[in-house]
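Worked example 2:
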Amino acid sequence: MELSLLSVTTVQHMLICLSRVAAIITSMPVFGTNMVPGRVKVSLAVMLTLLIFPAVEAQINFVDFSVLSTGLLMANEILLGAMLGFIARLIFTAVEFGGTVVGYQMGFAAANVYDPQNQRQVSLMSQFQNVFAILVFLAIDGHHIFLRTLVASYELLPPGLLDMSGPAVPYIVELMGHMLILAVRFSAPVLAVLLLSGLILGIMSRVFPQMNVFLLSFPINIGLSFIITGLTMTVVVSLLQNEFAILPERFWLLFEGLRG
């Protein structure tokens, strides 16, 4: 397509479409992290915009040529894309938080590693479970959920209809509370075994006062934690698959809330 054939309205609509696409790409799990170079994100956003624009152009009914109106609408589109990515990242935050709690309880409080996604130090078990969640996300083609949602979003919530005064914000707060429950579900098996281990070691310290229970607890807790983590891998995979499977429903509820 030659640039001379593109009208001002078409260019304006493409910029609006690019705003939503770029916001989703830069906020979605895995592909929106700091490990992916900025040029790759920009190239992917532009390519997806060119691919889906002919299919969604009919839903973009915006003819105001003022710079301020266009800028405000692009900001709304960026906010929408950021909210979609934030909802998906709550799952990974729950996994990371659960891994942090388990790591502290099993004796890895000082064993931190560098997380290249968030560019900060995290606990060893937190990083392990986060990488495991990423592998599950890619194995079930979780990124395809965002591509389908991206195209469907223009029918569910066309540009210009974003309404933050509806139930969307309370719904996101509710999902944040669900994140804490999910983190407990991820860490519950290991924490239960460690609690039982602490109880038994406490009884042994009373029965055998000469025994150094403190030093003995480190290898026992670490060994038990690794064993339980390995035995409950299938349960964790099932939980992650269920959470990723209901992402489209959560996106749909968000769109309904943003329509007012």
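The longest strand covers residues 112-115. The CA atoms of residues 148 and 203 lie 56 Å apart.
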